[in-house]
Design a protein that fits this description.
Layout: E1 2-9, E2 15-23, E3 26-31, E4 37-43, E5 49-51, H1 59-63, E6 72-73, E7 79-80, E8 84-87, E9 90-93, E10 102-103, E11 116-120, E12 123-130, E13 141-150, E14 153-162, E15 166-167, E16 171-172, E17 190-193, E18 195-198, E19 212-213, E20 225-226, H2 236-241, E21 245-250, E22 258-264, E23 271-276, E24 280-284, E25 291-292, E26 297-298, E27 305-309, H3 318-321, E28 327-328, E29 333-342
Length: 343
């Protein structure tokens, strides 16, 4: 069941709506501002309702949303090196907002938009049209994102079509802490990722080519282990990211739906199993968090993200595009989904 209510107003007076999903003893809230996942509440092993999503209690918090808490990201999730996008020989210079690179859609990404909405049965559908030239991307892009929460599964379906050849790479930037959003640390959350490779980066966190095997490195989560076990190891890629902020290549082929990760809290017993048909996931351990959240201050590593996507910067690295290109012809459908199942 989905109900609708007013969450608040923006600084310029626009109304923001909250959509509350009820799934037995579980519940979730999504906003039409930025397509933000504002909360997911799951009973702990002792029955205590536990909100596992970092976020804010009001619109003002999200308008000044450092860290993109809970947000829907577009047109391009993650980074494009130097903001350089070239399509059919035409160069489009994108806005650079992260160490000389383009990050999460640029100056005003999809996370700052108020989306149109429709409730269809147990589905919340959000709609946005990004005009040709917005953030200097080519093409009018029509986007639909559908949210479903039932039987413990929080599902996100992404769909987009452009009228010109363009780059598309959508994701969600939810921060999880399975101890509860106010716990303060995810270092004891136990994580497993079905991945044998990451994409190493340059000092500005841009993947510039090549793959690195995770075996016998701090990046090996092929077997479950606490996130904090090796996060401060003396490793060049960890130093550059100030911890985990890396793209993991999944074992599927692009478009094949698979389980790719599990995470569990030893405190609450809450377990999350993750699925996608995207070819990669960005694992970010919240190394840069520094804000006041819903019930507590969120400091360094208070939450972690699993952002399903195509490889960052694949528009500039052909071997990455071979694993799943983000360049779509006019009229071609971008269609992927991601699921987070809670037990």
């Amino acid at each position: 069941m989905i109900t609708k209510r007013v969450f608040g107003t923006t600084q310029d007076g626009r109304e923001v709506l909250a959509f509350d999903f009820i799934d037995g003893e579980r519940k979730a809230t999504v906003l039409n501002f930025g397509g933000i996942i504002q909360s997911i509440v799951i009973p702990a092993k002792d029955g205590t309702p536990t909100d596992v999503i970092l976020g804010y209690n009001d619109v003002a918090g999200y308008e000044n949303n450092g860290g993109y808490l809970g947000a829907l990201i577009g047109r391009f999730g993650n980074r494009i090196g130097k903001g350089e996008l070239t399509i059919d020989g035409v160069k489009y210079q994108l806005y650079c907002n992260d160490r000389g690179n383009h990050l999460h859609g640029g100056k005003i990404g999809f996370n700052k938009k108020i989306w149109d909405h429709e409730i269809v049965g147990d589905e919340l559908r959000l709609y946005l049209t990004s005009p040709d030239g917005e953030e200097n991307y080519p093409g009018k892009l029509d986007v639909r994102v559908t949210y479903i929460f039932e039987n413990g599964e929080f599902r996100i379906f992404y769909h987009a079509v452009s009228d010109k050849k363009t780059a598309i790479n959508l994701t969600n930037h939810a921060y999880f802490n399975l101890n509860g959003e106010g716990d303060g640390s995810i270092l004891d959350n136990v994580l497993q990722i079905d991945s044998d490779e990451i994409t190493p980066t340059d000092p500005t966190m841009i993947p510039v080519g090549g793959f690195r095997r995770v075996a016998f490195t701090p990046f090996d989560f092929t077997s479950p282990r606490p996130i904090g076990e090796a996060i401060d190891a003396d490793d060049v890629d960890l130093r550059q990211g100030n911890g985990y902020d890396h793209c993991y290549m999944l074992r599927n082929t692009c478009g094949t739906y698979v389980k790719y990760a599990t995470a569990e809290s030893p405190k609450t017993g809450i377990r999350m199993t993750c699925y996608t048909d995207m070819p990669a996931v960005q694992f970010y351990a919240g190394n840069g968090l520094h804000q006041q959240g819903k019930t507590a201050y969120y400091g360094k590593r208070a939450g972690f993200c699993l952002e399903t996507q195509a490889i960052p910067n694949n528009v500039n690295v052909p071997e990455y595009a071979e694993r799943g290109s983000s360049i779509y012809d006019a009229g071609a459908e971008y269609s992927f989904h991601a699921t987070y199942k809670f037990e």
